[in-house]
Amino acid sequence: xxxxxxxxxxxxxxxxxxxxxxxxxxxxxxxxxxxxxxxxxxxxxxxxxxxxxxxxxxxxxxxxxxxxxxxxxxxxxxxxxxxxxxxxxxxxxxxxxxxxxxxxxxxxxxxxxxxxxxxxxxxxxxxxxxxxxxxxxxxxxxxxxxxxxxxxxxxxxxxxxxxxxxxxxxxxxxxxxxxxxxxxxxxxxxxxxxxxxxxxxxxxxxxxxxxxxxxxxxxxxxxx
Length: 224
Hints:
- The chain is α/β, with parallel strands linked by helices.
- It is 28% helix and 22% strand.
- It contains six helices and ten strands.
- The model has no long low-confidence stretch (mean pLDDT 92).
């Protein structure tokens, strides 16, 4: 039974055109996820799931496998994120674990891949996801009413010094790890027993906008 790193990379990104193969620090964005996975001792195969032939060819040139093309109806803006995972499981044999690596987290390290496998094993859990310190508490989030007046999201808003707030975490989008059996049972990487693997914020940038891109590229040049 094998551990598969699955990298979903559709061709129809809207915010940043052809994002997954756009040059990021002189390499296609997808390169950084492929490289991190290939260098991990916990990953047996690195597979890219795409509906796009150009992305498939670039992925193969970077030493990833593309054993199938994803149907275009599973690569739309509104396609659920679990769909490429289920499609891959239906087309792969001898799979024990799936590690989902989104190309939009290029600062994720091989060290993080190794450590999330180790953490899940120590905690004896089927699934683990990467998280990072949100830096904010829910008491510090507001919405605007129809009169543009701010309304606290929290039902018990009480301003305090930042250090007194309870630490909260965001799922950072870099690592989703689960057994095949758990995914097929829950149709998700998340269960009531999912373990959180904490990543430093500087390695947790998830690229969605051009500002994210510029910031992540700046950070990578600084961290390399």
